[in-house]
Amino acid sequence: MKKAMLSLTALLALCGNSLLAQSITGTWQGTLEAGRELRIVVKISTTDADSLKAVMYSIDQGGGQPIPASSVTVQDSTVKVTIPGIGGAYEGKLNTAGTTMAGTWTQGPQMLPLTLARATAETAWVIPTAPAPPKPMAANADPAFEVATVKPSGPDERGPAFRVQGRRITTVGTSLSALITFAYEIQGRQIIGAPAWLESDKWDVTGQPDAEGQPSLAQWKLMIQKLLADRFKLAFHRDKKELAVYALTALKTGPKLTPSQGDPNGLPGIGFGGFGRLMARNANMADFARVMETTALDRPIVDQTGISGRHDFTLTWTPDEFQFPGMDRAGAPAAPANATEAPDLFTAIQQQLGLKLESTKAPAEVFVVDHVEKPSEN
User: Fold this and answer.
1) Residue 289 three-state SS
2) How many Cβ atoms from other residues are within 10 Å of residue 220's Cβ?
3) pLDDT tens, 263-315?
4) pTM reported for the whole predicted model
5) Closest to 269 measured CA to CA, from 119, 101, 70
6) Pair (205, 267) in one structural domain
7) Which of 42, 104, 264, 334 has the fewest CB atoms in 10 Å of its CB?
8) Which residues span the domain enclosing 46?
9) Which residues are CB-neighbours of 106 under 8 A, at least 6 positions away?
10) How many Cα neighbours within 13 Å face the side chain of 217?
11) How far is residue 214 from each of residues 13, 64, 139, 150, 309, measured CA to CA in Å?
């Protein structure tokens, strides 16, 4: 009898979650305060397989351009929507009336409050007609910047930041070291023979390609490489040197990574939602290694996983005093009083990603700077 009661309780719980999932279908909208007001619309519906799907619209940014979600989950009254195309995610709690969700929008390092309200035919915002998607740049194109500006960052400029808006790339408060690591996919410690200003001086860069179409990530990097040679007179050669590194491998049980539905040639959405919380969307192992070695760790990561393709994942851990070097963590938000403390980084990578990170020494490629100059005024 007791076993039957337990089974009935479990069945009721499952039915409750199923009914709750059905109850959130419809149009939800709210205003995100992100330096300016952005109207956000999320349309949730069901698939033929009776699972949930969602499409997001940022009316004041992308107009009518739909941004598909990779997953929509409901647990008790908590709704989670993952938007890999822009590296974002929403988590909200449904009120008892089922009319609002109060939660948080996370994108890269930003975590912003966002309340979504169920829209009716009378209250729903008008979504403009979506513009035609940009035509990709030809794969065999050899683009350079048709128009580019390089200027010293202001003393109060916050960075580093890389932004791509249509056919324009902008970097803010970025060191030449950061530009090199982005363009050549290396870690800062792999750059040797460089003057001190390579790291200390910060620059704002804006560029637009000379070829038609929307550049891929590889084409953006190629344009930055040409800019470094042209404006900074950068000359270098590559060599091998034994360095202290972290080796990244896959566990025998296999990785715990979700294949991404994003554009395989598009930019990854990867960044920190606070110290010790990394969100990755449409990212490969090189993207993961690069953001960890340049931000959270103090040495290069050698990718030995053999894992190809792009994935969506989240990594949460408790940083130690040696991680995020050079960053002030005094103002970081405290964890909620009832929060369970996350494991250390090495344990978290094993438990949450099915990967292993261990300290070792290994021959690694180094980027030897032969010549570099500060750029002249535009």
Assistant:
1) helix
2) 20
3) 787 778 887 777 888 888 889 998 899 889 878 888 889 899 999 999 989 89
4) 0.57
5) 70
6) no
7) 334
8) 18-118
9) 88, 89, 90, 91, 112, 273, 279
10) 16
11) 48, 19, 10, 22, 21
